[in-house]
Records
---
Amino acid sequence: MSSNKENLAMQRIAKLVDENSFMEIGSHVTARSTDFNLSADQTPSDGVITGHGLVDGNLVFIYSQDAAVLGGTIGEMHAKKIASVYDMAMKMGAPVVGFVDCGGIRLQESVDALDGFGQIYAKEVAASGVVPQICGVFGNCGGGLAVVPALCDFAFIEESNGKMFMNSPDSIKGNRVEKCDTSSAKFQSEENGCIDRYGSEDEIIAEIRSLITMLPLNNEGDVYTEECDDDLNRICNSMDTMKGDPRYLLSEISDGHAFFETKSEYAKNMVTGFVKLNGMTVGAVANCTEVYDEEGNKTEEFANSLSARGCEKAAEFVQFCDAFSIPVLTLTNVSGFNPCKCTEKRLAKALARMTYAFANATTAKVNLITGEAYGSAYVSMNSKSIGADLVYAWNDAKVGMMDADLAVKIMYPDAKADELSKKAAEYEKLQSTAEAAARRGYVDRLIAPEDSRKYLVAAFEMLYTKYVNEPEKKHGTK
């Protein structure tokens, strides 16, 4: 039956779970339909292996599609097995991991299979915000099936055989697969906004294991997921010189330098991911102006401005964290908005969504200003004005309406150069320093970059018992 160890779908499950911990459910289920001589085909487990196992001792529910059975296509019973996994996961309060390798809807079952698609969608929606949902794409994931990883909280795709698309590359007008493979792991990771990582099968399964150990099991789970052996007062070196790349900063402040980045190839000017502070999982959102490789060489550079994609990425991440009461840390270094025609088309809506996500979130929220924090771009980046519980700033950070030189040119359009220079120095001292913002109560504490870890650990420890009594309403509209 489907539990054969040579079966690819079962092999993937074995790589994911702790040794000998997987228990299969529904192994004797087969297709019920007899149309088009379907009963003559052997359909063990109806093309999907379902069950539960342990990942580092944590209970998870799993489904893994078997492309060797009718191409892994989704039929009536196939869909019911996946729906049943979701029902059990929500009852038990445990994450769902789905491995997709599918030829689409089973044509022989037509509307029964189509209804099965709808059942899977409905279960994903019901589980959203209740248990974490993680998807790995190892084969075809096309058409309506592409909605499945998009509805999940996290999605991964195998770099060689994984294909994800709504329309196949050759069906897009003016395109062909040789010209641009829009279904490839690379394209989808960089362009569609729902893929977190891509790599080999073993790499992404290992990353899924790592992610599960960082997340609470459900929306009532504890964010303290492990013990901390790291020094809580550890000095963080080179923070000020590497502030352009928040991946370095977040790795430096985290327990054991652990940082799990999400959507790493999408909207690189906004970094999102998870760190550990005294064993507590904390979601991080950070503006990015530089990217360095493992050898310390700068590989990419961005302006410190907000883009539509970056705002959408941040908003979605903050909403996930809030749903599971995961505290949020923001590293802010932003001076305005990306002046690009492409991003201008949807920047206002995207910025509104990010602003809404931060302001609406009731989880613990801390903002650390590492560079510039200017104008309404800063306000939207989890400022105290929209609900941050604590705002820290490095000693040399800039906080204000805009750069002092630009401000005085607007205020004194007829002034000469020497007068403008004098006025700019005066404006910066009075209005554009972190110290000036702290005097007005908009910044809670000025800290040295190397002391960031100890202050952030203390901040989230204090905020652990935060409780907010929200006004009664059905839901917001953003």
---
Amino acid sequence: MVDTAALTGNWTIDPAHTTIGFSARHAMVTKVRGTFDEFEGSAYTDAETPGNSHVEVSIKTASINTNNEARDQHVRTGDFLDVDTYPTMSFKSTKVEQLDEETARITGDLTIKETTKEISIDFELGGVAQDPFGNTRMGWEGSTTINRQDYGVTFNAALETGGVLVSDKVTLEIEISAIKA
């Protein structure tokens, strides 16, 4: 059981130990994975009254990294994220529910390309610990699937064998390490 006093407080997301990633099916046969390497975020958690908790994250869209520079450059264009017009995407929670001792559902507004849709992400608590530098850290892992078309990310190409080049479904994969203020 986690000490509720250790969970309650203000937190800053540690970008060096956090991954904001995604995966999407490519050519109907495999998944391409990537991350966003530049972001910032904060949270307030209230272990006694989880509904008082909230989180905000801002992500620089140009920081996309799929380990293929040509693909990353294409995803930065108007075909996908249009990073010159929309330099950030964001998430702001609207509701936090404790599902069980180690799982919380965070519902909120995800904004991509000025389109905002409500999503929910179930996060599992990895734990709370003191690091060697005296920081209290908290870890969470969660994922959810969105439809990129809902956010105006519509580029695609038909394949000769049927299907399309890029799936509409994108799985968001998030591993957070946060430091208590």
